[in-house]
Design a protein that fits this description.
The complex is a heterodimer of chains A (94) and B (209). Chain A is mainly α and 94 residues long. Chain A has one domain. Chain A has helices spanning 2-6, 11-33, 39-59, 67-93. The longest helix of chain A is centred in the C-terminal third of the chain and has 27 residues, at 67-93. Chain A is flat, with a radius of gyration of 17 Å. Chain B has eight helices and no strands. The termini of chain B are far apart. The model of chain B is unreliable at 1-10 (pLDDT under 50). The chains are: A mainly alpha (94), B mainly alpha (209). The interface between A and B is large, with 45 and 47 residues.
Amino acid sequence: MEDARSHITGYKTYAYIWACLLLLTGLTVTVAKINFTGFSVLICLVIASIKALLVLMFFMHVRYEGAFLKGVILLTIFTLTAMIGLTFSDVWYR
Amino acid sequence: MAEKEMTGSKDGEKHTGYTGAKFGMWFFLMTELIFFGGLFLLYSVYRSTYAADFHIAALDENIVIGSVNTVILITSSFTMALSISAVRKGDNRLSAWLQAGTIAMGCVFLVNKYFEWGDKIGRGIYPNSTLMMQKKKGEMLFYSLYYVMTGIHALHVIIGIGVIGAMLLLTRSGAINSGSFVKLENTGLYWHFVDMVWIYLFPLFYLVT
């Protein structure tokens, strides 16, 4: 935890992340205009997840946090994925 | 960490632990994640059931307003993150300006949302309207989910603006400073979370048609 508390992210790092997020937004809009039919949803969700990961890791500082907090976050994401996955196993194979 | 954070945890005293405050915020955000997750689950199930209707309904969404709002929210997250670094470097003045900028962008986001909703409602697209009742079931579900999900998200933006406003006052008064900044950090976490929810709402409602 000492790391998370003492680490100050530089303005430049944030600027890079911001630029990446804007580029990915542009990319996802472009991709959506080209019709990849079935893959469009998947590509847009992958791009959204990369953006969310950047926000989580850098803006929300998770990269510098301890193992416990990282574990809690992973567990929550796992729970959510399980909820969605199990529901779809019902919706698709009913 | 132990020494400093243990002080103040005696009965009747104020709890001021940095780690505790931060974990508390994270646990709250995890419940928020599950809360929004339920709505996303509902969206994805209905989308897979009524794929064609969702396609037609999503074509009505204004990609330009959606994209502009995405850029605004991402930029506001950027200024929020900067404001925390500024405070930690001892620059309260800069931090206050960055927080003010974040609030301003949050307000612009809401104004855009107002026009977007206003346009839809003006054209008779709102829950239980005559036009809506004539639409196919999937289209009705799309618009209902659109109003509920963007509405709850907008509510989070409004709350965020209020909390950042309070932080702005604390930063100006010096109550938030390079030695004590966990309130501002937690506010930042909340704001980034709201940004993250929008990162998913944007492609799901505006882009994927």
